Amino acid sequence: MIKEINTSFDKHLFAGKTVIVVGASGGLGMAMARGFAQLGANVIGTGTSAAKNAAAQDDPANAGIRFALLDSRDNEAGKAFMAALPAIDVLVNAQGVARPGAEWEEETFLDVMDVNLNSPFRLAMAAMPQLVAAQGAVVNVASMLSYLADAAVPSYTASKTGIVGLTRALAHRYGASGVRINAVAPGYHRTDMTRELWEDPVAEARIAERSALKRWGTTDDIVGAVIFLCSPAAAFITGVTLPVDGGYHSG
């Protein structure tokens, strides 16, 4: 897919642009960060684990990406992080957690909500002065559970549903300032979060069969949609949540 990204988009599309990918030390976030870096962007990827950040920084596949520690739940840290950057052209809020079963406990419910819904709001607001100056773009990561429900993860379901509404509200608040805010809604992609399912042959086959494309998504499958939404090709698109799920939620 990265090869296809390189042939689908101008390789200098984001040259000279600063792209922040929150939650970039693994999974979907890392794939997004790599996609932007390979199109010339100066990419800063954040993560909450120093060990994961260090491992990612040492990986040759991550050339062009600088990894930094950031706890997206820490409002003051988020403000300081964004304020230290002279320019921000794109902000991708790819952070997300799920705690199956445990989310029915209030403390866990609220913590998941803070990471998945509150932190995209606070980081978008912290980065907004630079985004306005750059006439930039924000992409939030929603989920197919923005449209469906999973009783094992009430907070994940509620928070990802909330991302759709937050994206619309931000788009209308800052559209007149020239900032576009959209979201993508991934489906079943092979990540650490879904490992228990795709390592189970029965579950894997059941999920693939429901999708229109009859397969699971890869982490790279999300990259093209995010790049498109941040590119000049999407100049008149804002407030939209784009499903990237192989047709799963419409099946």
Describe the structure.
43% of the residues lie in helices and 14% in strands. α3 links the parallel β2 and β3. α4 (75-83) packs parallel to α5 and α5 runs parallel beside α6. It is built from nine helices and seven strands; from the N terminus they run αβαβαβαβαβαβαααβ. The longest helix has 29 residues, at 106-134. The mean pLDDT is 92. It is α/β, with parallel strands linked by helices and 251 residues long. It has a seven-stranded parallel sheet, with helices on both faces. It has helices spanning 2-8, 27-37, 50-58, 75-83, 106-134, 154-174, 195-198, 201-210, 223-230, and strands at 18-22, 42-47, 65-69, 90-93, 137-141, 180-186, 241-244. The chain has a single domain, classed as 3-Layer(aba) Sandwich (Rossmann fold), CATH 3.40.50.
Which short descriptors sum up this protein?
alpha/beta; globular; Rossmann fold; about 250 residues; 7 strands
